[in-house]
Amino acid sequence: MPKPVSVRAGQVEFVKVNTEGIDWRDAYQWLLGLRWPQFAVFVAVVYISLNLVFALLYLIGRNSIAGIAPGSFSDAFFFSVQTLATVGYGHWYPQTFYGHVVTTIEIMCGVFLLAVMTGLIFVRFSRPTARIVFSKTVVIAPLNGQPTLMVRVGNARQQSMVEAEFRIMFNRDEPLVEGGDFRYFYHLKLHFDRLAMFPAALTLRHVIDEQSPLYGATPESLQASRAILIVSVVGIDPVISAAVQTQKDYLASDIRFGERFVEIYTSHGDGKLTVDYGRIHDTEPG
């Protein structure tokens, strides 16, 4: 029976059971999904393990390698390191048919390992990422006389994102006439959902009117319906002309009623604006 598969989407974890077996080709996505420290540890473990295996093989074939001390595991290990890297300093070399066979296999493994790791490292470095800062909370407060849901997002890169698109999806459990609950998903209408340029920070706003699924919502009702907000930003990195995307989800406990975000822009009157990213999460009574 296949093992349960854990998939985390923001703050929610899904455990998949009775799925098909994991495809070995999923290893590529798994490796690309590792954080850099995890990836470095994985490469180191594979590299050291491979050298340990071949060091043992060299020791099995006694006197197969000229120059190393008889029975010296450290010499066999470092000869394996040289062979895997196809360095070959000349002090140690295979002198039996068995030694030549093992070194040939190891050199082939080294070429394959180098090609795979080089490809993975290149993809990890070249893959564009959206450095978007999301506010830690969502606020609901009157704006222009109407209750409004607000989320603040900031572009943390040194250049503007272009053709940026913003979306907020709201989902919650709602009772059915037949009994029980059903999960409903809504796209919240925003004051604006697209910008030609996204250079700094802005606040996404959704007016809570009678057509809004949030109309009449309270902290208690959101908590009871297991409400979740998902904020998504999609745009183009102008440096490499590639699409980037990121998102953040908010639980009912992350929604604050009666608060608004503090001002983070300061105008200098000469066309220059200062944006204080240190206050991007700060709120005040609304």
Following the backbone from N to C, one meets helices and strands in this order, namely: EEHHEHEHEEEEEEEHEEEEEEE
Number of strands: 18
Query: Do you know the CATH topology of the largest domain?
Result: Immunoglobulin-like
Q: What fraction of residues sit in β-strands?
A: 35-45%
Oligomeric state, counting identical vs distinct chains: single chain
Task: Give the name of the CATH superfamily of the largest domain.
Answer: G protein-activated inward rectifier potassium channel 1
Terminal CA distance reads 54 Å
The class by helix and strand makeup works out as alpha+beta
Q: Which whole number gives the mean pLDDT?
A: 91
What shape does the CA trace take?
A: elongated
Low-confidence stretches at least 5 residues in length (pLDDT < 50)? none
> How large, in whole angstroms, is the Cα Rg?
28 Å
Give me the CATH architecture of the largest domain, please: Sandwich
Domain count? 2
Annotation keywords:
18 strands, 286 residues, Immunoglobulin-like, five-stranded antiparallel sheet, five-stranded mixed sheet, 5 helices, 28% helix, Helix Hairpins
Characterize the structure shown.
The chain has 286 residues and is of the alpha+beta class. It folds into two domains: 122 residues, Helix Hairpins, CATH 1.10.287; 154 residues, Immunoglobulin-like. Helix content is 28%, strand content 36%. Strand 16 and strand 17 form a beta hairpin. The two termini are 54 Å apart.
Secondary-structure map:
Elements (H helix, E strand, L loop, with lengths): L4 E5 L2 E5 L9 H8 L2 H25 L4 E2 L6 H12 L8 E2 L2 H30 L5 E3 L3 E6 L2 E10 L5 E15 L5 E7 L6 E5 L2 E7 L11 H6 L3 E10 L4 E10 L3 E3 L1 E3 L3 E3 L5 E3 L7 E3 L1
Parallel strand pairs: 6-14
Antiparallel strand pairs: 1-2, 3-4, 5-7, 6-7, 7-11, 8-9, 8-10, 8-12, 12-13, 15-18, 16-17
Helix pairs in contact: 2-3, 2-4
